[in-house]
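Hello,

Our lab assistant flagged a job as stuck in the queue for most of the afternoon. It eventually completed. Since we weren't sure the result was trustworthy after the delay, we are filing this so someone can double-check. Below is the sequence as submitted and the structure that was eventually returned. Let us know if re-running is recommended.
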Amino acid sequence: MKKAVFYILLLPILLLIYSAAGCSTEPAELHPVQVSVTPFLGEAASFIALEKGFFRESGLDVTIIQNRNGHESLQQLVNNETDIAHLAETPYLHYLIKKAKNPHVMPIVILAEMMLVNDIQKIVARRDSGINRPDDIQGKRVGFTPNTQSEYFLDSFLLEYQLTKSDVDLKPMPVPDQVSALTAGEVDAIAVWEPHAAEAALILGENALKMQTRLTYSTLWMAFASRELAQTDPQILESYLSA
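-- returned structure --
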């Protein structure tokens, strides 16, 4: 009888220990992973996974590095300063051109196509700069970000209106700086993506002009990693994508 009482009293303690050991979904050892991203709507899933602990549940200790554009994230990846980088197709095409000229550039692989989105590239101008229609941009100061979707979209926009880069005064700068430069009157127009275009338009109010275009341009947001990591430890990448 005494033994029976002892086991009955011991049972809740054993269940509590078992529950604490068995119900935790976080692995005992986490693999550190650095991920380079850009402030962009396509990154919502990354921050949700980090906030909700999905990465840790998958065995990863993820650190998110926020850059100003995908080109910077790509440079970190090829310089072996990060494990995974998110970026659009234009920086990747610049990488392929560089890789073709220099085979020693670190090889990278596409992990996943994360998002395909339309109509996020915009040309926003100041009306008080004498810009009321697209061809008024000729001779004006235009902010853009080299080696990114910003530059490619600007090229396509100018081509649509039979203009070239030599017809405008180009001002290379990071995307976040374009908003402050436009609202301060340091440039007359910017080639930028959302949500920065909406922010600039909101600040300028009626003085803002979003240029009309017939371009049906899509942005493909992708995740990349080094080929070495993909070959030596693919489980890390699988866990990352699963999370």
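-- support follow-up --
The delay was a queue issue, not a problem with the job. The result is valid. The chain is about 40% helix and 25% strand. Strands lie at 31-37, 60-66, 84-87, 108-118, 121-126, 141-144, 169-172, 189-193, 208-210, 218-226.
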